[in-house]
Amino acid sequence: MPGPIIVGTDGSPAATAAVRWAADDAARRGCPLRFVSVVDHWAYGIPKFPVSGGDPLTAHAERALSAAEAVARERQPDVKISTEIIEGIPSRVLRDKAKEAVEIVLGSRGLGGFAGIVLGSVSTNVAGHASCPVVVVRPGWSGERGEIAVGVDDSPECEPALAYAFKQARAHAGTLRAVHAWHLPAHPLAPEITYDVEEVREAHQRVTQEKLADPRKRYPEVPVREELAYGHPVDALVQASRAVGLLVVGSHGRGAVGSAMLGSVSRGVLHHAECPVAVVRSPSAP
Question: Per the database record, which ranges form the UspA domain (predicted)?
Answer without folding.
Answer: 4-138, 148-281
